[in-house]
Amino acid sequence: MTASKDSFKERLARYRQIRLSVIGRKSGELISRPVWFVLEGEKLYLLPVKGTETQWYKNVLKNPGIRVDARGKGAKLKAKRMVKSDAVKSVVEKFRAKYGAADVKKYYSNFDVAVWAGID
After folding, report:
1. CATH code, 70
2. How far is CA 43 from CA 16, 30, 102, in A?
3. The pLDDT value given to residue 7
């Protein structure tokens, strides 16, 4: 692993929020938004706030190439869907452990899908 990737992972480990950039499925424009995440080993997990109805998730279905930025250190990754209920539940539990069950309940309304991307 290169020093810049170490720095990226170190930043991911320190922060609670990252900037996710996706390509708009209709506009073709780069769209960025802050999102919560969980880093576990070499995997970055994302949980769409409204599940399959979340706009950034719909964009990822068309173009799985994403950019993740952790306060100035970023990486281009390939998003992969998680649709099996056991896998999604596992990600939801990871989010509850990191952010607290009350906040996850407050901000997330549909747990029918999750996304992961490998960081190599």
Report:
1. 2.30.110.10
2. 15, 23, 24
3. 82
Q: How far apart are CA 44 and CA 40, in angstroms?
A: 6
pLDDT higher at 23 or 4: 23
pLDDT digits (tens, 9 = 90+) for 12-50: 989 999 999 999 999 999 999 999 999 999 999 999 999
Q: Is there a contact between 104 and 89 (Cβ–Cβ < 8 Å)?
A: no
Q: Is 110 helix (H, G, I), strand (E, B) or coil?
A: coil
Residue 93 dihedral angles phi and psi, to the nearest 5°: -65, -35
Domain membership of residue 77 as a residue range: 3-118
Give me the number of domains the chain comprises: 1
SS3 102: helix
Tokens of 88: 């999604």
Q: Are 36 and 47 in contact (CB under 8 A)?
A: yes
**Rounded Cα–Cα distance for residues 3 and 31 (Å):** 28
